[in-house]
Amino acid sequence: MEFVYPKANCIAGVDEVGRGPLVGAVVTAAVILDPANPIEGLNDSKKLTEKKRNALYDEIKEKALCWAIGRAEPEEIDQLNILWATMKAMERAVAGLSLTPDMVLVDGNRCPTLPMASQAVIKGDSLVQEISAASILAKVTRDREMEALDTLYPEYGFAKHKGYPTAFHMEKLALLGATPYHRKSFAPVKRALNLE
User: Fold this and answer.
1) Rounded distance between C-alpha atoms, residue 127 and residue 141, angstroms
2) DSSP 8-state code for residue 114
3) What is the DSSP letter of 182?
4) Is 125 annotated as contributing to ligand binding?
5) What range(s) does the RNase H type-2 domain occupy (predicted)?
6) 107 annotated to bind ligand
7) Does the pTM exceed 0.85?
8) Largest CA-CA distance found in the chain, in angstroms, rounded
9) Which parts of the chain fold into alpha helices (H)?
10) φ, ψ for residue 122, nearest 5 deg
11) What is the mean pLDDT for each group of 10 consecutive residues in the chain (196 residues)?
12) Which residue, 80, 62, 65, is CA-closest to 25?
């Protein structure tokens, strides 16, 4: 399927990573690519190997006209809910760009509230280069944060499952309880903390 780009001079792509995990921030990225400096091999971050993602991460940061990371921490996710926290994080990523785009393409089926035109693109991380680039920046950023968290709480295995509710993670949560970085509004964490 070919994506038809809207007519715009300056397009930013936006994507998020980390809606499903039980721990850590939801991380978003906004990227404006440089048409004069193309990047080969951009794709949905989940379809790339870790090695390829890390190489592209450095290349995007180097070659993009501008990029920014936005985030919402676990407390905010618990306060707002994951959908609204994700929208806030996307707004922050776009606001953080050093250039103002005239069009923002967002992965998924809804757009955050932005001061410029925006369009949601289903499967955008596979169809739109700018969104692919954003998905790579967001994923590598969040994965590295999970690896850092793993050094603080090695018994949970965050470096392996990145905070997603795997059987191993659920077992450790039941056994050890939640860390301060867990999302207390998520059902498995609530159960572990006896908040239900």
Assistant:
1) 22
2) -
3) B
4) no
5) 9-196
6) yes
7) yes
8) 55
9) 50-63, 74-80, 82-95, 124-127, 129-152, 158-161, 167-176, 187-192
10) -65, 135
11) 86 97 98 96 92 97 98 98 98 98 97 97 95 98 98 97 96 94 95 77
12) 80
